[in-house]
Amino acid sequence: MRVLLTGGSGFIGSHIALLLIERGYDVLILDSFVNSSTNVIKAIKTYLDNKNINHSFKIINGDIRDKKTLDRIFDDSAKEFNPIQSVIHLAGLKSVSQSFIDPLHYWNVNVCGTQNLLSTMNEHECFSIVFSSSATIYGLTDSAPITEDHKISPINPYGKTKVAIENMLYDLYKSNMKSWKVCSLRYFNPVGAHSSGLLGEDPIGIPNNLFPYITQVAIGRRNHLNIFGDDWATTDGSGVRDYIHIMDLSEGHLDAIDYLNSKESCFEFINLGSGIGYSVFQIVSQFELSTGLDIPFLVKDRRDGDVAKCYADISKAKKLLGWKPKRSLEQICLDGWNWQKKNPNGYN
Ligand code: NAD
Ligand code: UFG
User: Fold this and answer.
1) Most Cβ neighbours (<10 Å): which of 28, 52, 232, 266?
2) Which-ligand-closest: CA of 211?
């Protein structure tokens, strides 16, 4: 089965790509490499070669906003009598802070890019899509665990683009309910790395997120971790989040594809998280325990836009997709550290 994976060179996309190829899917990766390195593709090939896995996946260096490129991808597949049967759509911009600085760019890439992709799919009668949404759409809420019917109330332009895309997907589905199959996966906090140490998270510049910041402190690229507040209404005062192993998240996408394949048509929003909330102090302690390293930290003021607790109710994913996360927080720490240790400067 041929799958088009947009954003397949990014942190999440690269792990999904590997899994799809390992499971025998025919994968086309479309990425503009605006936020990823071509070395990611080399790492995927190295892994597959080391494992003697036959592969013929294709990389297309292109932008989802470029209609001609998209048309060519779908046309070429049709000419090869191997049409694209499903799209996993991850290409987009994801920095909350950047989205405040340049909101129009975020709307252009995320919303116009997705609109372009969806009209191309529609024209080529490819009606099956898994979309990468985010828990950020739930906004400032302290009512954890969060179910899918929780109020949608994004507080940043990035989150607003995700809501706009979910709405666009819904309208499209309603316009042709006999054909469209849509699954919008709302990710919580994807972390960790592939167990081979060949793929992992490599943020450009100073990491905004907790987990890559910790691994960069561990490797000596940063002096200490700043903990944003120890006076939150949580058991130890630090923020509580739902950290999900990147391979558990990736497996959720394959289950979503299976789910779409089993349906004539459908439209679903589904949370993907571990279902467990861990505090920043708990993450630091577990990382130290798992790796034997010290993570020096300073407690700083709260960060704007943060909440005390945010973790998922994952019963819908379990019920509908037959999916559940299998990897522990310890595994997350071990795999994340293994990646950072083997790649102190990421992909460069
Ligand atoms: P990433 O930046 O590592 O990957 C995104 C990929 O998309 C990159 O390789 C980038 O080069 C590519 N891309 C960007 N704009 C493009 C365009 N116009 N055309 C083609 N390719 C383009 O991010 P990620 O962490 O892998 O996230 C993937 C998706 O999941 C994003 O849509 C993000 O919003 C969503 N998401 C991520 C998280 C997270 O914490 N990482 C949480 C929730 C949702
Ligand atoms: N934190 C620190 N120090 C840091 C970074 C983070 O103490 O250097 C704390 C935060 O205050 C928060 C927790 O660690 O309590 C997690 O913060 P992250 O930045 O790692 O993750 P967020 O939950 O804030 O946000 C992430 C993505 C969003 C996405 C959201 C839900 O950055 O884009 O998960 O999917 F929307």
Assistant:
1) 28
2) 2
Beta bridge partners of 269: 184
What pLDDT does 51 receive? 95
Report the alpha-carbon distance of residue 89 to residue 73 in Å, rounded. Answer: 14
Find the residues whose C-beta lies inside 6 A of ligand 1.
6-7, 9-13, 31-36, 63-65, 90-94, 109, 113, 132, 134, 187, 189-190
Cα–Cα distances in angstroms (integers) from residue 198 to residues 14, 322, 338, 341, in the given order: 10, 28, 9, 11
Q: How confident is the model at residue 140 (pLDDT cuts 50, 70, 90)?
A: confident
C-alpha pair distances (Å), 150 with each of 155, 262, 293: 15, 27, 39
Q: Which pLDDT score is estimated for 22?
A: 95
Structural domains in the chain?
A: 2-342 (3.40.50.720)
Q: What is the DSSP string of 72-108?
A: HHHHHHHHTT--EEEEEE--S---HHHHHH-HHHHII
> Pick from 344, 271, 250, 274: which is nearest to 282 by CA?
274
Per DSSP, helices labelled H in the chain are 11-22, 39-50, 67-79, 96-101, 103-106, 113-123, 157-175, 210-218, 246-261, 280-291, 315-316, 329-342
Say how many Å lie between the CA of residue 341 and the centre of ligand 1. 24
Report how far ligand 1's centroid is from the alpha carbon of 298 (Å).
Answer: 30
Q: From CA 244, how far away is CA 110, in angstroms rounded?
A: 24
Please count the CA atoms within 13 angstroms of the CA of 154 that sit on its side-chain side: 20
Q: What proportions of the chain, in percent to the nearest 5, are helix, strand and coil?
A: 40, 20, 40
Q: What's the predicted TM-score (pTM) here?
A: 0.98
Instruction: Please tell me the distance from the alpha carbon of residue 89 to that of residue 148, in angstroms, as a whole number.
Output: 20
Residue nearest atom 14 of ligand 1, based on CA coordinates = 92
Q: What is the pLDDT of residues 148-169, one digit of tens each?
A: 999 999 999 999 999 999 999 9
Rounded distance, CA 124 to CA 17, Å?
A: 23
Is there a catalytic annotation at residue 213?
A: no
Cα Rg of the chain (Å, integer): 20
Pocket test for ligand 1, best of 4, 12, 332 (most atoms within 8 A of CB): 12
| Active-site residue, selected from the candidate residues 25, 106, 138, 158 | 158
